[in-house]
Sequence to fold (202 residues):
Amino acid sequence: PDLRAFYAEAREALRREHGDYVLVNTSFGAVVDVAGPQGMIDLLVRMGAVRTPEEIAYYQDYVTYSQRLVDAFVALLRRMSREAGCRIILRPHPAEDLRFWGRVTRDLPNVRVRQDGPAAAWVYGCRLLVQKGCTTAIEALALGVPAVTFDQVRSDRFDLELPRQLSHGVDDPDEVMALIRQPPPAAADALTLARAHIANLE
Fold:
């Protein structure tokens, strides 16, 4: 927590620019890729990281699942834009194609797509973080910022557990909207779990 001072100035600058904002962090490079949904698989095959038909099938299933995640987040973004009553900052993973998100948000006047600056500063400045399987959920807990895992689409095969365990998992967009209006405190069990993974959390 003493490290929050490193981001205090950046946080204040972001709040001056955007006011009260909700941060949506995505991690969908498997499908939101400049080469398209097949791009990751083709790259892995060329690198020799994927060789067998079973391995290729695994990644094809992952791409299919990731597309369902993208569709769910696009629908959520549209609803948030209509109902949140504040600025929405969409921060895509660096591997994602910004042109895709530009098309998605073109008609959403209160949504801004940004990739500049450290992720921690954006997290520290927001009223609520919405993500799925993103390490920024861990940063949010360390910074004392409420975080949501949007779990409308789930997979025991592909989902990362720790970001979900350290945040508030919700599967209903209505719940997300309620948490935007009234952000929750960090759950005590999340802090207990985090201490097993993060040194000097307090």
User: Anything to note?
Assistant: The longest strand covers residues 21-25. The chain has a mean pLDDT of 90. Residues 53-83 form the longest helix (31 residues).
